[in-house]
Amino acid sequence: MPERARVPDLIDRALQRRVAASLFNETWSLLEKADRTAGEDERMVNAAHASRYHWGLIGEPVNFAVGEWQISRVYAVLGRAEPALHHARRALAYAEQVGDPFQIGEAHEALARALAVAGDRDGLSRHRGLATAFIERIQDPEARETLLGDLSTLPGGEP
């Protein structure tokens, strides 16, 4: 995986961080919107990629994992299997680099979701199981609930 890019001198790190977080939050708001327009779908894709770009300039591997996870979720919600799988695999690679059970579990959840979009029921089941296996290793109860909640939205429901 590539290391963090050099920060362009255009804006300082604090502003870069605020932009990355703001774009992440905008993406999440659009993901949760029930009646998105086609234009909002495009804005959601662009915001997710822009957030990940800015995290790539100033963040750490955990930020890269989360950004790739979010991009995968966006593409899965839009029914676009190939980019959803690509970014889910990247999320898993970064999550494994970080070594956090929550991040690894979420990356497997992203892979399960992307595989469901691709019509791969066996892959969905396998990665749901791999994500579920990390639940007990997550120390933070809120993080554990987040992963359980994400898994419950996969086709087939509860893990």
Question: Could you please describe the fold and organization of this structure?
Answer:
The protein has 159 residues and is an all-alpha fold. It folds into two domains: 11-59, no CATH class; 73-159, no CATH class. 74% of the residues lie in helices and 0% in strands. The protein is built from seven helices and no strands. Helix 1 (13-32) packs parallel to helix 3 and helix 4 (81-98) packs antiparallel against helix 5. The longest helix is centred in the first third of the chain and has 21 residues, at 38-58. The protein starts with 12 loop residues before the first helix and ends in a 7-residue tail after the last helix. The model has no long low-confidence stretch (mean pLDDT 93).
Distance between the termini: 30 Å
Tally the helices. 7
Strand tally is: 0
How much is the radius of gyration in Å? 15 Å
- The coarse silhouette is globular
- State the order of secondary-structure elements, H for helix, E for strand: HHHHHHH
Helix/strand structural class: mainly alpha
**Residues in β-strands, percent:** under 5%
Q: How many domain units?
A: 2
pLDDT < 50 runs, ≥5 residues = none
* Mean pLDDT over the residues: 93
Helical residue percent band:
over 70%
Sheet having the most strands: none
